[in-house]
Design a protein that fits this description.
Elements lengths: L4 E6 L4 E8 L3 E9 L1 H5 L6 H20 L11 E7 L3 H18 L3 E5 H7 L11 E6 L4 E6 L6 E5 L5 H11 L6 H8 L23 H13 L10 H30 L3 E5 L6 H10 L6 E3 L11 H10 L24
Parallel strand pairs: 1-4, 4-5, 6-9, 9-10
Antiparallel strand pairs: 1-2, 2-3, 6-7, 7-8
Helix pairs in contact: 2-3, 4-10, 5-6, 5-7, 5-8, 8-9
The structure holds 5'-O-[(R)-(carboxyoxy)(hydroxy)phosphoryl]adenosine (KG4).
Length: 342
């Protein structure tokens, strides 16, 4: 039988990435060009700059992937691309590149939902068992998603205001930590001796979440803390805020995830998105489910940030369902996860 070779492209935010996946298992190439350093001075992703950098980088990143020794690009059977959600200009660059390659090779195109990619990244660890529950925690999303079968998504819980990563980044900024703040909150929270303090628990219905009130409360407290002559907070104060924020924010997520998993009687729980790199989350999620006979999967660290390997993996599951995109498709910056597969 002919090998299935998927070339996948991801450019929804600040990473230009290309991967090649053979028969859904063998990752031949996975290359990521990150723009984090370029956006650092703006304290967040600057959309216009992101588009320009994608345009500048896309040909180089695709050429690098295709230069794999012994690889013949004529063996590519499908081209997959993140079709949304994401930054409009950034998405368009990846979509244009994908269309060009698919048209040149005369192979089918697959438009993948970015969050489906974050969920299916976990299949690099182990095959999925359905029904499963996915937790997506990133700079733009905090969602609890139920999957009764492959590529079917029901959002059963979501943030009512800020995403957890966004809230981490804002608290980190007021602590004087660099962007992306969540990474630094994690870094400075490693010392087990750090003293944490209690924070109020937001009252949110069902499996929904809320971070905005907590974030504002923390920022107000931090503003009142005495600073040195350069405007910096003492190191122990920064650590104490960082660790307390981390534990509190993540416990809110895990309390809801645990309850939802028991109520929905799922076989597996998977996590994804940038915040799934968090050390406390990665340890604590396993501890929470230790006595529940539910398989807990956390993605490898390389697969927590945006990449095209996860897009290829999701595309691999879309092929048997016939979920192809016409050459005329356009990127959808606000694409909904629940409309997938319909
Ligand atoms: O999924 P992602 O790379 O980008 C999108 O939002 O699409 O997630 C980025 C978010 C940022 O808010 C960043 O601060 C957070 O993930 N993040 C972390 C960690 N690594 C990245 N938050 C907490 N702990 C980490 N180790």
């Amino acid at each position: 039988m002919k090998d299935e070779i998927i070339l996948a492209i991801e450019s929804s935010c600040d990473e230009t990435a290309v991967a090649i996946l053979k028969n859904g298992e063998e990752l031949l190439v996975n290359t990521v060009n990150t723009q984090i350093k370029d956006h650092q001075r703006f304290g967040g992703v600057y959309p216009e700059l992101a588009s320009r950098l994608h345009l500048h980088n896309i040909t180089k990143v695709v050429s690098f992937a295709l230069s794999l020794k012994g690889f013949d690009y004529n063996t590519i059977t499908h081209v997959a691309v993140t079709g949304g959600p994401g930054l409009p200009g950034a998405l368009q660059i990846g979509v244009m590149a994908a269309k060009t390659i698919a048209q040149y090779l005369n192979v089918p195109l697959i438009s993948v939902h970015h969050l489906a990619g974050h969920i299916y990244a976990n299949e690099y660890v182990t095959p999925f068992q359905y029904p499963l529950l996915a937790l997506i925690a990133s700079g733009g999303n905090s969602e609890i998603v139920y999957l009764p079968s492959p590529m079917h998504f029901e959002i059963i819980g979501e943030t009512e205001d800020d995403a957890i990563g966004e809230a981490f980044d804002k608290v980190a900024r007021s602590l004087g930590l660099p962007y992306p703040g969540g990474v630094w909150i994690d870094k400075v929270s490693q010392d087990p001796e750090i003293k944490t303090f209690p924070l109020p628990k937001p009252k949110v219905d069902g499996y929904n979440l809320s971070y905005s009130g907590l974030k504002s409360h923390l920022v107000r407290l931090i503003e009142k803390e005495p600073k040195d002559e350069n405007g910096n907070l003492p190191e122990d104060v920064v650590k104490s805020y960082a660790r307390s924020t981390e534990v509190h924010f993540i416990n809110q997520l895990l309390d809801k995830l645990h309850q939802a998993a028991l109520d929905k009687n799922v076989k597996q729980v998977v996590v994804g998105g940038g915040v799934s790199a968090n050390s406390y989350l990665r340890e604590e999620v396993k501890r929470r489910f230790a006595n529940d006979n539910i398989d807990v999967v956390i993605p490898p660290l390389w697969c927590t940030t945006d990449n095209a390997a996860m897009i290829a993996k999701a595309a691999h599951h879309m092929i048997p369902l016939g979920l192809f995109a016409p050459m005329s498709f356009t990127s959808e910056p606000n694409r909904s996860l629940e409309d997938e597969g319909k």
